[in-house]
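>> Question from a student workshop board

For tomorrow's exercise we were told to take the sequence and the ligand below, predict the bound structure, and bring the output to class. My setup keeps failing. Could a helper post the expected result so I can at least see what it should look like? The ligand is iron/sulfur cluster.
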Amino acid sequence: MSRILATLEKRHALLAGGRAQRERLARVQLARTFEDALSSSGLLPLLATGVEILQINVGKRCNQTCRHCHVDAGPDRKEVMPRAVLEACLSFLERYRVPTLDITGGAPELHPDFREIVGRAADAGAHVIHRCNLTAILLPNYSDIPALLASRAVEIVASLPYFQARETDTQRGEGVFAESIEALHLLNSLGYGTGGDLRLNLVTNPVGTFLPGNQRELEAHWKHEMLRRYGVVFDNLYTITNMPISRFLDFLDERERTEEYLTRLANAYNPAAAAGVMCRNTLSVGYDGTLYDCDFNQMLDLPVESAVTRTIFDASMQQLAYRAIATGPHCFGCTAGAGSSCGGSVA
Ligand code: SF4
Ligand code: SF4
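>> Workshop helper replied:
Here is what the output should look like for this input. Compare the format with yours to find the bug.
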């Protein structure tokens, strides 16, 4: 098994672009559209309730090429958030006193200004979340990152599909699990995951085409197993549904399971989960400064629908806080069962 795969973009795959993915999803015949489902719950149009989280995607470079990656990230991607966009994001964060900055990618550490982003956001009084793949902090030249995160009380949200090597490595690459455990030991040694201010949350997603199990029950099981097997502690386990976009959509198409999976998500529509979807309190910024309702819409090239505010350079809180959210069939991934968000289940 190769550790690194070519991204969809590198392979010039049919589904490399966001528009192609939206067109593919639109061809799936479902009993009702996502908008019909929202309407039946009294949630159409889906409206934001404010911007509590500014989520910035600082680029698509990553040291891994996980099979389910919704970003199609990897070492062959070149997109990096330029300085001007970064400054505009930090300015927006400060100007409107947005409570939380959520840094995602790719592997955010690989951004040359990652350390500065963390420092300036923390200085501005924002709670900072770092979406960490665990292996990047073990790379040469990044060994200072864990201590930096700890010194600024950055919350770490780290992906780990399963607490055993075979399942994790199948999805993320050979040897990733062993390195992830090494990184978790390092973070624990700094005080992360011990129930104090240094929050360490793990994210698990199904290794397959089923919905995640009960988050609370899985968390208790994982805590027991991670401690017993590896001596690792953490604070919360977030369960996340695999989004039927990008590399996971390609995976589904290869196996001719796209229709089956979308139907499963749509049939499991939960109005309570729909009411709590993360786009309602989050604003997402692409590496080039374009504004989106969430990181998934970002990968589908589906920007915010406001005619006036389209980029972080002209972003107005007044226009964005209670905006109507752009939705599509992929949104069933957020509303199936107990729901799914960057913070795990929602209902
Ligand atoms: S899922 Fe995360 S770690 Fe894996 S390739 Fe995508 S961005 Fe990188
Ligand atoms: S995919 Fe994005 S826009 Fe759709 S429900 Fe989920 S968070 Fe909201």
